[in-house]
């Protein structure tokens, strides 16, 4: 009976080790994926700032469209580090407002209106006291000129 008990304990410990290994492996995989998402969003933030400061309007517009694509891929896919749906809606609304301003600048009025409508459609997710196309556009302009905390941005 002692031998049978030892074998049983050995098999149980081995099975527990295998299960724990799989669990920890999947956790590490999820964390690696989440860090990759964060890195991608941070990279796009730097890329957008570089294109806004140094690129042509067309290059900046293309970067904004790419950023929207990244944000849309994050929607509905919560992870440990990824942005909440409210933050994704906020970034999307500001991006649509910036695209609208660029479209307006090149006299594409219908396109500009479409972008502002997309921004305004996100208002329920933002939770702002007052939310309109004008509010979102003004906020995006203020951020672009003065930064998040009100200090003038250096060029």
Describe the structure.
With 155 residues, the chain is mostly helical. The protein has one domain. It has 6 helices and no strands. Helix 1 (2-54) runs antiparallel to helix 2, helix 2 runs antiparallel to helix 3 (85-105) and helix 3 (85-105) packs antiparallel against helix 4. The protein starts with a helix and ends in a 9-residue tail after the last helix. The mean pLDDT is 81.
Key traits:
single chain; 155 residues; mainly alpha
Radius of gyration: 24 Å
Uncertain stretches:
none
- Total helical elements: 6
Q: Give the tally of β-strands.
A: 0
H/E element order:
HHHHHH
Short characterization:
The protein is mostly helical.
Write the topology of this structure.
Layout: H1 2-54, H2 57-74, H3 85-105, H4 109-121, H5 123-126, H6 133-146
Helix pairs in contact: 1-2, 2-3, 3-4, 3-6
């Amino acid at each position: 009976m002692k031998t049978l008990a030892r074998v049983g304990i050995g098999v149980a410990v081995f099975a527990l080790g295998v299960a724990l290994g799989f669990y920890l492996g999947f956790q590490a995989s999820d964390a690696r994926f989440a860090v990759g998402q964060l890195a991608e969003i941070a990279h796009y933030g730097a890329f957008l700032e570089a294109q806004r400061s140094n690129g042509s309007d067309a290059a900046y517009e293309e970067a904004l469209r790419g950023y929207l694509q990244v944000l849309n891929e994050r929607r509905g896919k919560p992870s440990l580090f990824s942005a909440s749906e409210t933050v994704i809606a906020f970034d999307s609304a500001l991006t649509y407002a910036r695209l609208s301003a660029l479209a307006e600048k090149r006299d594409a009025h219908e396109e500009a209106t479409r972008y502002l409508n997309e921004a305004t459609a996100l208002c329920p997710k933002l939770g702002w006291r007052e939310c309109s196309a004008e509010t979102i556009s003004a906020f995006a302009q203020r951020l672009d000129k003065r930064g998040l905390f009100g200090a003038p941005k250096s060029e």
